[in-house]
Write a structure and sequence with these properties.
By secondary structure, the chain is α/β, with parallel strands linked by helices. It has helices spanning about 20-30, 40-45, 50-55, 65-80, 95-100, 110-130, 160-180, 205-215, 220-235, 260-269, and strands spanning about 5-10, 35, 60, 85-90, 135-145, 185-190, 245. It has a single domain, classed as Rossmann fold (3-Layer(aba) Sandwich). It has ten helices and seven strands. α1 packs parallel to α3.
């Protein structure tokens, strides 16, 4: 019950494969109360009402690219809980990826939408929370990201730039939120994970296997990512802020693994 009495908002739960879904289940188990939110179209496509019933939570739709929606959501959260202890931003969408547009032939209107939904929404969220004094002292804001912000993964497309921007917002707003209100802001760079969104990236199955063989601990699961999120929401990580935290079984610092070398050797025979 390390989150007993804590209140928050969880963005991005779509279905049982979602990391945000796992976070909500565990946050509830650890004693937290929260509002669940996602885009109106995602609410129609997903099964979030089942999660809401399971966790005794309210669902409030929010198109994160629309300031009016963001304002209404934060106002509703304040009215329900007062100030918040934690917020999870687990949001990412690329129309160029969905339309299978190659990186060298992107639709820029789609790119603008990608950056707005996947990254600028993080700043919009934090600015709204900041201006409305919606976070308690020592509160925690967490965004989910991916190592494509630092390395090239061709099929990840423009989402790499979106994640880079997301991480930059965490550092920059983390400074201002920390100085003014002692609120901490971090991103978690998660392993390839078998979510509905992740599996939509071209060649995902092959890359999932590659990352698993590269990582000395193997790929981190959605459930273990949820546990990491809970630790960052808790009082045990009060002085961790402005960090991009790799949660990937050691993939981020492994040059090559014996398992992968064995595979390459067999191919070369």
């Amino acid at each position: 019950m390390i989150l007993k009495g804590k209140k928050g908002i969880i963005f991005g739960a779509l279905d049982t494969k979602s990391i945000a879904w796992k976070v909500a289940e565990l946050a509830h188990k650890e004693g937290a109360e929260f509002i669940l939110t996602n885009a109106p179209i995602a609410l129609r496509m997903g099964t979030i009402n089942e999660l809401a019933a399971k966790t005794n939570s309210e669902v409030i739709p929010c198109d994160v690219s629309v300031q009016e929606d963001m304002t209404k959501l934060i106002d509703a959260a304040i009215a329900k809980f007062g100030q918040l202890d934690f917020v999870l931003h687990s949001i990412g969408m690329s129309l160029n990826v969905r339309k299978k547009n190659p990186y060298t032939d992107l639709n820029y209107d789609f790119m603008h939408k990608t950056l707005d939904i996947s990254a600028i929404s993080f700043h919009r969220l934090m600015q709204t929370l900041y201006q409305k004094d919606a976070m308690k002292e020592w509160g925690s804001i967490v965004g989910l990201t991916y190592i494509a912000a630092q390395r090239v993964f061709p099929d990840y497309n423009e989402m790499a730039e979106a994640k880079s921007l997301l991480e930059s917002f965490a550092r920059s707003f983390g400074y201002h939120f920390g100085k003014a209100k002692k609120v901490r802001v971090n991103t978690i760079s998660q392993s390839p994970t078998m979510t509905t969104a992740g599996s939509g990236v071209g060649g995902f199955d092959a890359f999932y296997t590659y990352a698993d063989k590269m990582s000395p601990l193997g790929n981190a699961s959605a459930e273990s990512c949820a546990e990491y999120c809970i630790s960052l929401f808790s009082d045990y990580t009060r002085y961790v802020t402005m960090q991009n935290l790799f949660h990937d079984g050691g993939f981020s610092f492994t040059g090559i693994s014996n398992d992968l070398m064995d595979v390459v050797a067999k191919i070369s025979e």
